[in-house]
Recover the amino acids of this structure.
């Protein structure tokens, strides 16, 4: 049986499921090029939908998704302190046992 960690593959570079939502937004905001990095669409879309399950983001573009996540964080005090992995259902790197990463 294969363990499905589909969103885990959305984490790249220094990103980690152990970051808070606020950390993710700060990291994106620290480099203008990240606001246009299409690799961020999946994780931002998942965070956006998880923070507000009743709403579908209006755009699949990075800038629009960053704005939507930031608005949700502003509207929901404390949501920025939640771990990205917890929000989107991806276990933290520390919680993954080596056997979880192997395909059988």
């Amino acid at each position: 049986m294969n363990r499905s960690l589909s969103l885990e593959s959305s984490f790249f570079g220094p990103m980690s499921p152990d970051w808070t939502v606020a950390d993710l937004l700060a990291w994106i905001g620290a480099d203008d090029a990240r606001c246009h990095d299409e690799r961020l669409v999946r994780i931002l879309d998942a965070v956006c939908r998880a923070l507000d399950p009743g709403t579908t983001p209006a755009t699949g573009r990075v800038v629009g998704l960053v704005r939507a996540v930031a608005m949700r964080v502003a509207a929901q005090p404390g949501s920025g302190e939640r771990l990205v992995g917890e929000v989107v259902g991806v276990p933290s790197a520390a919680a993954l046992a080596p056997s979880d990463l192997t395909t059988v």
Remarks:
- The helical segments are 21-29, 41-51, 62-75, 84-88.
